[in-house]
Write a structure and sequence with these properties.
Shape: globular
Structural class: alpha/beta
Bound molecules: zinc ion
Radius of gyration: 20 Å
Number of strands: 12
Strand content: 15-25%
Number of helices: 9
């Protein structure tokens, strides 16, 4: 049994083949706008790969940006940056065309499912997952499954309000958690104060950690991250929170966040473990592959 898995983001689409033991046999990525001159560039890009590898897979798993109706697979919202992608139904497009089951879910949900089965949350039935990148994504994992909410839009921790009268957010409202805690906001602020563009990896280079401006920025950013996590601890009383996004591979960051969150919690909340995600850029593909394998179990051609 093999599954072809996709991970669709605003700038790149990753894809690969996964075997029955969920080993990634190979993976590649290409720019999201490769088929920009077509009616629906993401749909056409995936269609091209599905044709290229036809006969080599038994199911299709798709992790994608956006809010997904998990029952129908229609993209409900949240992909305004990809032309004509909103309201695309990838299952309706691909199941009849390729005659294999198709599973589709939101990218953070897929990443959490990947971590739940193969990564930092292996063996856990309940945890929260947050990803820090361009924005802040979230997933609520309860009783061994994603809690999706009444309109499949639950767990959008990035748009919790953490600042009254705060900064504008990309969602059109103000004071959202991600307007303060997203990695993009942090690197932009450091770059502005340092007078040169700096990415996350550069900021955490040992030489730069001697710079008081950078250390002040890191400290402020960690405070913002910890503020949102404190709120989530009081709502969910979780035993585990998994933090994803490339920047979270910085050990110093995780250690500081643990200390800052712990300092704000009462005793009945302090047992929470805060761990970094383990699967890196494979999490979305593995989660999507797992969903596809589940759909394959009940599939009759
Ligand atoms: Zn917002």
């Amino acid at each position: 049994m093999k599954i072809i898995a996709f991970d669709v983001g605003g700038t790149a689409i990753k894809f690969g083949l996964v075997d029955e033991n969920f080993n990634v046999l190979f993976s590649e990525e290409f720019p999201t706008n490769t088929y920009k001159d077509t009616d629906n560039m993401v749909l056409r890009a995936m269609e091209a790969k599905l044709k290229e590898y036809e006969g080599q897979y038994d199911a299709i798993g798709i992790s994608t940006a956006g809010q997904i109706n998990f029952e129908t697979s229609e993209i409900n919202d949240g992909v305004g940056n990809i032309p004509n992608y909103n309201h695309t139904n990838l299952r309706a497009a691909f199941e009849p065309q390729f005659n294999v089951p198709v599973a589709v879910d939101n990218d953070v949900n897929c990443a959490a499912i990947g971590e739940a089965h193969f990564g930092a949350a292996k063996g856990e039935s309940d945890f929260l997952c947050l990803t820090y990148g361009t924005g802040v994504g979230g997933c609520i994992y309860i009783n061994g499954d994603v809690y999706r909410g009444s309109k499949y839009a639950g767990g959008e921790f990035g748009h919790m309000a953490t600042h009254k009268d705060g900064r504008p957010c990309t969602c059109g409202r103000i004071g959202c958690y991600e307007a303060y805690a997203a990695c993009r906001v942090f690197t932009a602020s450091v770059s502005e104060r340092m007078g040169k563009p700096m990415n996350g990896r550069e900021i955490f280079e040992p030489e730069n950690l001697k710079n008081p401006i950078i250390m002040e920025e890191i400290n402020n950013w960690e405070d913002e991250i910890a503020l949102g996590l404190r709120n989530l601890c009081y709502i969910f009383n979780p035993s585990l929170i998994v933090l994803g996004g490339g920047i979270m591979s910085e050990d110093m960051l995780i250690k500081d966040i643990r200390e800052k969150v712990d300092a704000q919690l009462e005793d009945n909340y302090k047992h929470v473990r805060i761990e970094k995600a383990q699967l890196r850029n494979k999490a979305g593909m593995l989660g999507a592959a797992w969903l596809a394998a589940e759909r394959l179990k009940n599939w009759s051609k």
